[in-house]
Amino acid sequence: MKRKLCLFSILCASFAQVNFAQQDPAVTHGMYTKMTYNPGATGSEDGICASLIYRNQWDKVNGAPNTVFFNVEANLNRFVRNLGAGISVVHDAIGFNRQNNIHLNLSYKIKLPNSDFISVGVGAGIVNVGMNPTWVPPQTPNDNLLPVGFAATGLDLNFGIFYKSQQNFYVGLSSTHLSQSILTSSVSNLMTYNTARHYYLMGGWRKDQLFGDFDLDLNTLLRTDANKFSFDLSARLFFQNKFYGGLGYRSSDAVLVLLGMEVTPNLTIGYSYDFTTNRFANISWGTHEIMLRYCRPIPVPPPTIHKNPRHL
Known about the structure:
The structure is a single chain. The chain is mainly β. It has a single domain, classed as Porin (Beta Barrel). 5% of the residues lie in helices and 53% in strands. It contains 2 helices and 17 strands. The model is unreliable at 1-21 (pLDDT under 50).
């Protein structure tokens, strides 16, 4: 019990003065939420897609992270040539701390030979952070070392470049929190949150009909805030393009197991379990993640029929 309380204190204490750690949450199903990390990937698929991911990290650890990703994006080429647009919402809770990121993303495609394209994207929105600690007795109201309530909102800007080949290959380079907003508590100047820039390199490749009815899908995501580096690797096998299973690895964190299926032609559901490999392994029951993704073509308006009044 004492060990759990110590770990919980470590999770909460990061807000005490200045937070410099990596701030963007990682998810196992990152291949379905590329837009969150790289606005250049907005609308890279045809039609309109909505993705919802819920992540319960380090299950059974008090105050451990719980994260929700919600994205809606569309390829608007039918209405505005080469344009993609989307909305990205991320809610991350860890200990007493809460962070909410909301962005409007726009991308512009530059067509290349063989139907390949490069798209450049920007994301503009807000980052909101806060904490509302409830300390257990004995309470010491005059102890300046104990963090108090905190809430602040600032401008947040993202930028990304994304390349996609018709040979089922993609790669992207991006940065989040370009504005590096410094959020300060109205209660105490000692309470400060710095939104540090994060840099991402993503890539993936899919081989259809690797053997028989099986397709191979590979994805990777590398991230750094110029202080710490981490990466994700995953490989999935699709059967008849309806069911998938795979394995992955997140550096210094977990071994990943992924399962999913296409419930309908438009709806995909996925689940992953992360076997924790870091120091939380002895007290955590692993990490659970659920993913829902719904995609459909943008409806085509019916053709307008004009009648000639001379021919009834």
